[in-house]
Write a structure and sequence with these properties.
Elements: E1 2-5, H1 11-24, H2 37-43, E2 51-56, H3 63-69, E3 74-77, E4 91-95, H4 98-104, E5 113-114, H5 120-124, H6 126-136, E6 151-154, H7 158-167, E7 172-176, E8 186-188, H8 191-199, E9 206-210, E10 217-218, E11 221-232, E12 241-252, H9 268-271, H10 275-278, H11 291-294, E13 303-305, H12 306-316, H13 322-350, E14 360-369, E15 375-381, E16 389-393, E17 429-433, H14 435-456, E18 467-470, H15 476-490, H16 493-496, H17 500-511, H18 520-529, H19 549-563
Parallel strand pairs: 2-3, 2-4, 4-5
Antiparallel strand pairs: 1-3, 6-9, 7-8, 7-9, 10-11, 11-12, 11-14, 12-13, 12-18, 14-15, 16-17
Helix pairs in contact: 1-14, 3-14, 6-19, 13-15, 17-18, 18-19
Length: about 575
């Protein structure tokens, strides 16, 4: 049985969000059936009915946002321990874990969607993405991947990194391969610094990236941009549809920026834009509590809507081209998703999927502008936060703290104006809905749901004002990787494709070509060299074997170089 879930966001928040949409002339989400039909009508015009199932959203998750966008009409199963059952109505299954996705695949009807792809956590891993981007660069035109800062992965590229510090000066940022929320990140300018800091770490795997030391500043503060890219559908015959949202978030540092040197590299809140770090600063400035304040062109909040920040950039830098900015973002997303798409098909096949993928996924693209307005992709986020609340610290002497004693960290989260001691902040605090997060993320999710509505109705080229459609199917990289993935699968995939027997079966015809220099023993040697892999899995219950497609590309390069040298 199901019950309507109204969530914790009040009707007034819907009114505020509607005002924001009217302000920017952006359409919103589809009408969703359920107890909150009135709110759904307030949110925007509808063209279809969906049930939004948030049963699998757990923890500090997106449940509140999904419930809000669906107008309070999301469905929650009262007996959550029961396995999911087939729905006869069009349903968007909102999940946060791959195991929940896999459990729903067998019971999805054609008009249903699930908000996750198998394999994206592995593809978005910092180390894996650096490896695959490096593998793809020589398949593209020169400069096509220049939106990615120079990146190396430790320990496999340790010698290259040591040579780098010996030949070039500059600042480098080091990130744990599987890190998040800014934990474990540090800056270095020399090999000795790197060795000392790495020696104190339990995990020795890390990503070393050239630091963007001349970022674009607003009000003297460094910032990055969280952009949302929606992937939907796809199959072995065509890539997922890709859409870039025009709205996003700008996250600002809370200390004035100075180019890094030995005296200031420890000032993380001047160099790192991570919200999870800067929200703990005494200088963190919360966003406004009205739509006008959120979009105020004079706002100095530490988190602002992308569209508001673009206007601020235009005001301060008249040469900035907003249209060109979105064009470059679309091209960046096009190249990146062209590299991911063929691997997603392989992952889907690996969990028993067949035919079109009934999946939708919101990716977070974290980018930074430098002083020449060039875009730099810092990382991909597989699970960008859709949480719409923030923590407000309570100062000593606040009457709400009277009669309370210090408590241990880790207490469960409390809301509705109650004093909380969870680890969001070190000091006692309150939780409230952050209007900037709600407006931006409701725009993203609402627009994505409208895209799913159009796709479910068979619209060939869905159009929603919030999103820019990106053509991946005609990208040369997608075509090359799709062909390589098919050959990889026919050769036996990760289990067999790298064996001597499989390589001989696949490439032996080249040994018979008169002008080729390939011999059978060359294939045996290539097999020995390419059996291992550096790709790792971050997705519990799913093996990273499809990522070995990029190892197979190395096999193809070696075979080609041996057969046709020069």
């Amino acid at each position: 049985s199901t019950a309507a879930a109204g969530g914790h966001i009040s009707r007034s928040m819907f009114k505020l969000a509607r005002l924001a949409e009217e302000r920017r002339n952006i359409a919103s989400a589809p009408k969703v059936s359920g107890a909150g039909d009135r709110e759904a009508e307030d949110w925007g015009e509808a063209s279809a009915s969906f049930v939004v199932d948030t049963t699998a959203c757990v923890g500090k998750s997106s449940k509140e946002l999904y419930s809000a966008v669906s107008g309070g009409g999301s469905a929650q199963r009262q007996q959550q321990q029961q396995p999911p059952q087939r729905r006869r109505r069009a349903t968007i299954h909102c999940v946060t874990q791959t195991v929940d996705l896999i459990g729903r695949l067998p019971i999805l009807s054609p008009e249903c969607w699930v908000t996750r792809y198998v394999g994206l956590p592995d593809l978005c891993d910092k180390g894996n993405f650096a490896r695959l981007a490096r593998s793809c660069q020589d398949l593209c035109e020169p400069g096509e991947w220049d939106f990615i800062p120079d990146t190396w992965v430790l320990p496999e590229q340790a010698e290259a990194v040591r040579s780098l510090f010996g030949s070039k000066s500059g600042t480098f940022i080091v990130k744990p391969e599987d890190g998040s929320h800014g934990n474990g990140i540090f800056l270095v300018q020399g090999l000795r610094e790197l060795d000392i800091k790495m020696s104190t770490r339990r995990e020795k795997t890390a990503v070393v990236q050239r630091y963007i030391d001349k970022p674009l500043l607003l009000g003297g503060m460094k910032f990055d941009l969280r952009l949302y890219v929606c992937l939907a559908g796809g199959s072995s015959q065509r890539p997922p549809r890709v859409f870039v949202c025009r709205e996003g978030l700008a996250r600002f540092c809370t200390q004035a920026y100075e180019e890094p040197n030995s005296r200031n590299m420890h000032r993380s809140m001047a160099h790192l834009t991570n919200y999870s770090l800067n929200k703990r600063s005494e200088h963190f400035e919360h966003g406004g509590e009205t739509i006008e304040a959120v979009f105020d062109p004079q706002s100095s909040a530490s988190k602002r809507p992308l569209t508001a920040v673009l206007k601020q950039i235009e005001a301060e830098f008249p040469e900035f081209d907003r249209r060109g900015f979105y064009d470059r973002i679309a091209e960046l997303a096009r190249t990146t998703t062209a590299a991911l798409a063929p691997v997603l098909v392989s992952y889907f096949r690996g969990v028993g999927g067949d035919g079109p993928m009934p999946c939708m996924h919101l990716l977070g693209f974290d980018v930074m502008l430098d002083r020449n307005f060039k875009l730099h992709l810092l990382e991909l986020n597989n699970s960008p936060s859709l949480c719409v609340e923030e923590a407000l610290a309570l100062e000593i002497g606040d009457p709400r703290l009277e009669g309370r004693v210090a408590r241990l960290f880790g207490r469960s989260r409390e809301k509705d104006g109650k004093v909380c001691y969870c680890t969001d902040l070190e000091q006692p605090h309150l939780h409230r809905t952050a209007l900037v997060d709600f407006v931006v993320k409701a725009t993203v999710v609402g627009g994505a749901f409208r895209l799913l509505d159009q796709l479910a109705r068979g619209v060939e080229w869905p159009q929603v004002k919030e999103f820019i459609s990106v053509d991946v199917a005609n990208h040369r990289l997608y075509f090359l990787l799709q062909s390589a993935e098919r050959l990889f699968a026919r050769s036996g995939g990760a289990q067999k494709a790298f064996t001597s027997l499989a390589l001989r079966r696949t490439f032996e015809p080249l040994c018979q070509v008169s002008n080729a220099r390939l011999e059978k023993h060359d294939l045996d040697a290539i097999s020995v060299r390419c059996r291992g892999s550096s790709y790792v899995s971050q997705d519990r219950g799913v093996k990273p074997e499809p990522l070995r497609l990029f190892d197979f590309l190395d096999v193809l390069r070696r075979v080609g170089a041996r057969a046709f040298p020069g």
